[in-house]
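REQUEST FORM: STRUCTURE PREDICTION
Request ID: SP-0412
Submitted by: Lab K.M.
Chain count: 1
Length (residues): 68
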Amino acid sequence: MTHREAELLYSYLYNRQSFLESELVSFQQKIRLRKVDTVDCLELIILIERSLAFREFSCDVKNLLKVR
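STATUS: Completed
RESULT:
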């Protein structure tokens, strides 16, 4: 993997993780302002799981490509 490819990979991983985390924070702030129902809880679970799954995916990709 070239230096440029590694840079692009890191940029993608960082930007995607940042997006998922900001989406999660935004949703948490929205549900604070209203009564929470079961759908809100499920949406929150999905957002948390997406973020955790992507973090795990990122680690796996880095390990497979031996990039740190």
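NOTES: The chain has a mean pLDDT of 93.
Reviewed by: T.R.
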